[in-house]
Amino acid sequence: MNLLEQPGAANGLEQLRGWLASGQQPAIGETLKFSLVEVSEGRAVFAATPGAHAYNPIGSVHGGYAATLLDSACGCAVHSALSSEQGYTTLELKIAYHRALSASTGLVRAEGKVVSIGKRVAFAEARITDEAGRLYASATSTLLVFERKS
Question: Has this prediction a pTM greater than 0.85?
Fold first, then answer.
């Protein structure tokens, strides 16, 4: 059972904390080898080690890999600020690539934070950095907030 699909059970932060405690990870994280590692209200952090599994035909990590990390960080940051009766979906994601990711980059973190949230729209931002704090990509996101049906 997916803990994030139980309206009324817990608020978004409680859902994500329960998910982490249970050892669950998003299916896309399993596919692309990244994990949710931290969550607090309005903040979510994913960790990943880019590798050949995410390479494009030109020999570097595909931009979609960074985009997926950033979208996940923004989305889960917003999810952590929602009530048990709310859901969300990404409306817009704007990404800036600052330097290329590669198999030699090592561990990176995608940290997402809520900028503001209202009844219908949320705004979030995220950054991918390596262990030395170097910036690889950043994003801003607009997300639709909606009431979920039980």
Answer: yes
CA dihedral over 82, 84, 90, 96, signed as positive or negative? positive
Q: DSSP letter at 99?
A: S
CA dist., res. 116 & res. 127, Å (int): 17
Q: Please state whether 52 falls in left (phi above 0), alpha (psi between -120 and 50) or beta.
A: alpha
pLDDT in tens, 124-141: 999 999 999 999 999 999
pLDDT digits (tens, 9 = 90+) for 75-103: 999 999 999 999 999 999 999 999 999 99
Give DSSP secondary structure letters for 18-70: HHHHHT---HHHHHHTEEEEEEETTEEEEEE---GGGB-TTSSB-HHHHHHHH
Strand duo 108-117 + 121-130: pairing: antiparallel
**With the C-alpha atoms ordered 33, 46, 96, 107, is the resulting torsion angle positive or negative?**
negative
Give the model confidence (pLDDT) of 25-75 as tens digits: 888 999 999 999 999 999 999 999 999 999 999 999 999 999 999 999 999
The answer for residues whose C-beta is within 8 angstroms of residue 1's C-beta and 6 or more apart is: none
